[in-house]
Amino acid sequence: MQFEYPEDREFFANLLADGDAKRLEDEFSEHFDFRHQAIKRWEFNKTKKKLLAGLILTHGGKCQLHIHPDCSKEEIWEPDHIVPLATNELNKKLRHIARVSSEKVAAQDFGSNHIKNLTLACKRCNSFKKHRLIIPRSFYRSDLEIFPHRVDNEIFTLPSGGHTLVQKYLLQFKQWEGAPVPTDYNGKAVIDWNGEPVFAELAVLRLFQSHGWNGVWVDSYRRKYRVGLPDVATPVELPEARNRVVESLRAKTGKSGGCWDVLAWKDDSILFIELKRSKKDRVQLSQTQWLKAALSSGFDSENFALVEWDLAG
To answer: How confident is the model at residue 123 (pLDDT cuts 50, 70, 90)?
Structure first.
């Protein structure tokens, strides 16, 4: 397969083949067609109805994306390209090409119309996806069923210049409408979690606790570990084994900060979770450095997750 840039090959190897470039060539070559998207779109429209009927038969009328809160509420089905016919995501996120004036960042042609590159999506999820690189859950080596909606992968550019993908999820929370909390940390949103006022970090922690995980909110503002609101619940200490992990990564980064918002563990599994409010927050350099330190210490990207969240309504 003739990719325009070597980092594109690396990206798709990570996305589809657990980083194995040979496996990408051997198992996924039929997902790619580098011809112009207009030609591919014309060919696709000619066979769209037939392809849709086959996909509905294969998947039993069940959306394979499941990335929007209103997934399948309207039972209108559409064929979806796993690798998009064209996308500008790699130009934006790998090469950091910026939009000039009213011109969009140029798209690259990638996906094919081969049946292996097609899956079934409900109309709402397909519209939400647009031309982003979001693949069905069945492709992922490890997916967190705790989260109802996987959005896509976040591309991290590491200080070394390499790239890695981190799983990314979408959550919506209900705003707290009860009595004010003692402190809101300079305007943090207060969320109603089953009748309990919490911050978003604690809401995610509660979600994991409800599935049998242990964990803490890493309160970097006051440098404490918490399982409840400040000024309501007393800070806690990390178990010795988990504390050793955190301290070793702090030593490796040379900084006291950078740990992701929520640290969760269950049996031998450990997960660092970073929360970003939709369209408001960005990942910080210190958090990328934390990820790099963890990857070089034997962790992999499956030990990390991003949660993009907002208030419902």
So the answer is: very high
CA 280 to chain centre: 16
Residues 10, 17: contact at Cβ < 8 Å?
no
Contact 68, 150 (CB under 8 A): no
Half-sphere exposure (CA, 13 Å, Cβ side) for 186? 2
Q: What values do phi and psi take at 195, rounded to 5?
A: 90, 0
pTM score of the predicted model: 0.80
Give me the DSSP letters along 164-199: EEEEEEEEEEPBP-SSPPS--TTT---EEETTEEE-
Calpha distance 190→46 (Å, rounded): 51
Tokens of 69: 């809160």
pLDDT in tens, 174-202: 999 999 998 888 889 999 999 999 999 99
Q: Which long-range contacts (CB under 8 A, 24 or more apart) does 191-199 make?
A: 191/311, 197/229, 198/228, 198/229, 199/229
Q: Look up residue 144 and give its two tokens.
A: 């967190």
Residue 163, pLDDT above cutoff 90: no
